[in-house]
Amino acid sequence: MVNFFHNRGRIFFIDRKMGKLDKLEAIVARPGAAASSLPEPAGRRPREAHLARIIACAERAFAEAGFGGTTMRQISAAAGLPKANLHYYFGTKERLYRAVLENILALWLDDMDPIQPEADPAEALAAYIRAKMAHSAARPYASKVFAAEILHGAPQLGPYLGLELRRKVAEKSLVIEGWIARGRMAPVDPRHLFFTIWAMTQTYADFDVQIAAVLGQGVVDAATFTAGTETVLGLVLRGLGLDIRHHDEQGGRKT
To answer: Which neighbouring-strand residues pair with 21?
Structure first.
């Protein structure tokens, strides 16, 4: 039985029985991609490949059909693996669903890492926003599953939200309060700043159909994500009295 969480582009998993931390590259199930097209990086061990493929296919299945409308048989078929493999690694559908949720939430928490006391506020917040928007583009299904969980009262993630997420937000809020106290940015309630950034960035995944419809597009494409990212950056950084002129599209400082 394994417990997943995502960190810096990799899926980490803890074997509960052995207490051993291992890791494997994440496979991203992009919108419109067939399950059979998911890549298998060279040199990957079968166990790692199977785990990553299952998580990717589960994200899409739960996003499209919900927890109640998804079966382990459907996920196993999409992943091209025997259903017994899913039960071996996760035990139940509920545990697999929770693994998907913990995976995306841990990835989002790691996005906060640039927010450090010694960092430049504009650069740190720009890096955070760009990372969040990049994940909305690359992992829309995981974001949708998370949104549905929250809308239903977070029955699986409630304790995690009240502990790990709350702790991380409190930690980074202290950093932002320090920047404000030193006159490095305009006053703001840090927690509400995070709520606002989450809403602006995750909407490009959770409400992609609405955005595409308004823009007269079939899907939210790369150009739309680029425009959205720059819009969010401008609104947040300028609203905080921060200068964004020195940042290029990769979030680095121009020379």
So the answer is: 14
